[in-house]
Specification:
This protein has 95 residues and is of the alpha+beta class. The protein has a single domain, classed as Phosphorylase Kinase, domain 1, CATH 3.30.200.20. The protein contains 4 helices and 3 strands. It has a 3-stranded antiparallel β-sheet with strand order 1-2-3. A hairpin with a 4-residue loop joins strand 2 and strand 3. Helix 3 runs antiparallel to helix 4. The protein starts with 5 loop residues before the first helix and ends with a helix.
Length: 95
Amino acid sequence: MPEVPSRLKEALADRYTIERELGAGGMATVYLAQDLKHKRHVALKVLRPELAAVLGTDRFAREIEITAGLTGHGIPYHMLAQEVMEWLDQFLGPT
C-alpha cells in the first residue's frame, strides 16, 4: 500500500489524521482519515496536484456540493464546500 505523502499529512494535521490510502483513480486519491473535530472516520478525496492546477477548484467544489446534499444510511460525512475551498487556497494557492 502506498505511503501517504508527508506534505499532505502536515497540511491537514490540525483537522485530520490520515491513516492510509483507500484507492486511487485517474483524477484523485482517496484516504481513510480520522476527523479530529467530529471524532469519526471519513474518506478524504484529494485531487492530483497536476489536475488541480489545470482544473481549478470549481469542478471539485461542485462535486462536494452535490455529494454533501446526499442523505441516508451509509452516506459518508463530507466537509462543507467553503471549508474545502479555504483549504485548497492554502494548499494550492488561489485559483
